[in-house]
Amino acid sequence: MGVSDVTVKRRIAGQLAGVGAITLVISGTAVAGPTGGGGWAEASTGKVSVMSVAQPSPSRTWAGGAAIDENPEDGTIRFTPAMYERDLARGGAWKQTVLPGADAWNSRINDISTAPDGSAFFVGDQGTNSQGVLVGRHVAGAWQLTSSTGLPDGTVEASLLSVSAASGQDAWAVGQGYTQDTYEHIPVVQHWDGRRWRSVQIPGSANWGLNQVEEVAPNDVWITGMDYDTGQSLAVHWDGRQWTRTPTPVFPDSAVLFDIAARTPTDVWAVGWSRDTDKQRPAGLALHWDGTSWTQVPLPVGTFSLQAITLRPHGGLAVVGGNDDVAVGLTWTPAAGWRSLDLPENDPQFPLGVSSVVSSGTHLTVGGWHYLVDDDGDSFMSGAILTR
Fold first, then answer.
1. For 133, 137, 280, 350, which has the most beta carbons within 10 A of its beta carbon?
2. Per-residue pLDDT averaged across 375-388, rounded?
3. Which residues contact 75 (CB under 8 A, 6 or more apart)?
């Protein structure tokens, strides 16, 4: 990719820590110990950090991310896209999926999306030279690695951070990149029409950071992130004709939304973090859209940054996140409110970080990693998939 070591570490910190709470140094792989409670089972993915999980069917689950390799001679770091699959109808063990051509890419799998018609996509990072941005399509039972080359002219080090599909003929992806000459931020929005990815310009978005997209229907699309001009959270809606920014709660210092999930046009949830001062640790943020406005939903006291959300039966949901002190996992129902997911207790030597979650009925899958805490900084040690 031709990306500097500093840039690579920034990407790892942004994906794994979310709020930049830790500085990561790449280390050797390690197998995590058994989970500490809550009925969770853990599978180690070794040097593959798990960044996204998805459920193509009630019995199958995908976990995508990247194998992280450090060159011992110069310390540079390379990502190789990687995917795991679990099929309960075939024994239920996690197995690494063959991704033809993956070795040609220096990229992560940042997000996976499945559609009701059985199609699926994943998105990653910009490759070298004219490779474009990595995009995977699930066709005839196998993943095909392709590229989106429709980036704005002069874009470098771009990443598509999220993808959402209504069908195999209609999908959206969002992320960000930088200008080649001045290294200024560029928001990236892409639309798949069944034949190719095309860039889309949202009016007023020049200084927005775009983290997540959710396509409920072709005329009902949400994008969330952060407005860098104001430091406040961002939620933008497409109604099939135009983009409209919807007001979100304003905080004294800053706020950002990392994930969004929609059950209906009048039942939409978004999560992230907020701060009242620049010295405050980011506090978890949960917002609900009722079809008219966004309302902040109170979280348990002490909840840290939330990274991901998934919908559950009977109007419920689950969220995960945290920082370098603790992994956060919560479930919510209209009747009981917030309850802990009882994620495994952090091993003081190899703490757990989590950044993705998916639900199938009463079952949950959480993707994350373990890292080593020492005086020289926190070092990625091994990927982890938790199931319950």
1. 133
2. 86
3. 5
